[in-house]
Design a protein that fits this description.
Elements (H helix, E strand, L loop, with lengths): L8 E5 L3 H9 L4 E5 L14 H13 L3 E5 L12 H10 L4 E4 L2 H10 L5 E3 L8 H10 L3 E3 L6 H10 L3 E8 L11 H6 L18 E2 L7 E2 L15 E3 L4 H6 L4 E4 L6 H20 L8 H9 L5 E2 L23 E11 L4 E6 L3 E2 L3 E5 L6 E4 L3 E2 L5 E2 L1 E2 L5 E5 L9 E5 L5
Parallel strand pairs: 1-2, 1-11, 2-3, 3-4, 4-5, 5-6, 6-7, 7-11, 10-12
Antiparallel strand pairs: 7-10, 8-9, 13-14, 13-22, 14-21, 15-20, 16-17, 16-22, 18-19, 18-21
Helix pairs in contact: 1-2, 1-9, 9-10
Length: 413
């Protein structure tokens, strides 16, 4: 190994301000997010200018970083307003910008020369020559394409003295480095300008030209087939290889995912990375980390391109739905140590007698039954049915603010 292994940054998605806070509190070193324009997730929530400023302040107060996506492939009309936006991001002290287009990159270099620039995976960064070229132009970091193997990543690490970032968990785009035309063709929504309709997840059948209206399954399955429905990437079982590849930042995909997803996936990888560096020689992947990744909404997992070219085993042909073993039912807003009661914001119907799991940012994971609840007026209640209603709940052990309460969906009746 020609490079020294250092502890990689754990980089998490933040589609909204709440998700940003959860990712940081549950262990992310940095988050990436988008404003209301110029990014590739037009439907991911995204941040107003005021929210961007608050996000940076929240992260910096805790020693974390914020990267903002400016990674669309712009047409002329998209450039209107971009200079002003770039200057604003510089003023609020965003830590870095993610860009893919050379013109946008050079505009950043000219207008905000001190801003750190990261090259998005959209730029198809698949070899060491490209990575070194971006470095010569002034890039601080290059995000490697998901279509790369471990061996290729190691070779780039050995030949390039620039920060490298790679995806290790989340949805796999069916198109090369996310550069898809399907959405634009079917719906007029351009995925390369932030408006992907996820056409690859739709259910398809075959139509023969002389027999319009007759639909034939593409595979031998009476339900049809999801011919472009990839499994999700998960490199947790192989986290030792990921760390020892020498990359500087490990990226979780999912700005459009839930608060529960942001917290659970981040904490699982936080524990794994910390455990490796605490004792690399005796490190082993813990079943509890793998279980945590099953609790959030996901498709069946795969290692993507990391060890081999994907085959039919890396696709899901029979369904487009997600799997998960736990359901997010409440978020702790505050806790009174003197009384043992917590103020909880309801996120799903819950009632007395149900067993819940208490998942905390830093505290221990434990289970308890819901034995007592009160509404905002202090009246005892048996059920909390109203979306995001505020209530009080008796807790068996102390809890932290932003603790997630969830229940096992596999045992629900």
């Amino acid at each position: 190994m020609l490079f020294m292994i250092k502890k990689p940054e754990l980089l998490a998605p933040a589609g909204t301000l709440e998700k940003l806070k959860m990712a940081i509190l549950y262990g992310a070193d940095a988050v990436y997010l988008g404003g209301k324009a110029f990014g590739l997730r037009a439907f991911g929530g995204n941040f107003t200018r005021e929210e961007l400023k608050e996000a940076v302040e929240f992260a910096h107060a805790r020693g974390r970083k914020v990267y903002v996506t400016v990674n669309i492939f712009p047409h002329n009309s998209d450039l209107v307003g971009l200079p002003d936006y770039l200057k604003y991001l510089d003023v609020i002290k965003v830590d870095a910008l993610l860009v893919a287009d050379l013109g946008v990159f050079m505009m950043c270099r000219e207008l905000i020369p001190e801003m750190e620039l990261h090259i998005s995976t959209q730029a198809n960064n698949t070899n060491w020559a490209t990575v070194n070229a971006w470095k010569k132009l002034g890039a601080k970091r290059v995000v490697l394409a998901r279509e790369m193997s471990l061996a290729e990543i190691r070779e780039i690490r050995e030949k390039c003295d620039v920060d490298l970032e790679m995806f290790m968990h989340g949805a796999m785009c069916i198109s090369y480095s996310g550069r898809c035309l399907l959405s634009n063709y079917f719906t007029g929504r351009d995925s390369n300008r932030g408006s992907c309709a996820q056409s690859c997840r739709w259910k398809y059948a075959l139509v023969e030209e002389t027999r319009p209206g007759q639909y034939f399954p593409i595979a031998e399955d009476e339900r049809g087939t999801y011919i472009m429905n990839s499994k999700d990437m998960c490199l947790m079982p192989n986290i030792r290889d990921v760390i020892e590849s020498g990359v500087d930042s490990l990226k979780i995909e999912g700005r459009m995912k839930s608060v529960h997803y942001a917290a659970s996936v981040v904490k699982a990888y936080r524990l794994a990375i910390d455990a490796y560096f605490a004792d690399p020689e005796h490190f082993e992947v813990q079943q509890m980390w793998l279980d945590e990744l099953e609790k959030v909404s996901h498709r069946t997992y795969t290692t993507g391109f990391y060890y081999h070219q994907p085959t039919a085993d890396d696709q899901i042909y029979g369904k487009t739905s997600y799997d998960q073993t736990s359901e997010f039912v409440g978020l702790v807003r505050s806790y009174n140590a003197a009384t043992g009661w917590a103020v909880v914001e309801q996120r799903n119907n819950m009632k007395l007698g149900q067993e819940i799991e208490v998942f905390q940012p830093t505290g221990p994971l434990y289970r308890q039954k819901i034995t007592a609840m009160k509404n905002a007026d202090g009246e005892s209640i048996d059920v909390a049915p109203h979306p995001q209603m505020m209530l009080s709940m008796k807790m068996e052990q102390p809890v932290e603010p932003y603790t997630i309460l969830r229940r096992d969906v596999t045992q629900m009746k």
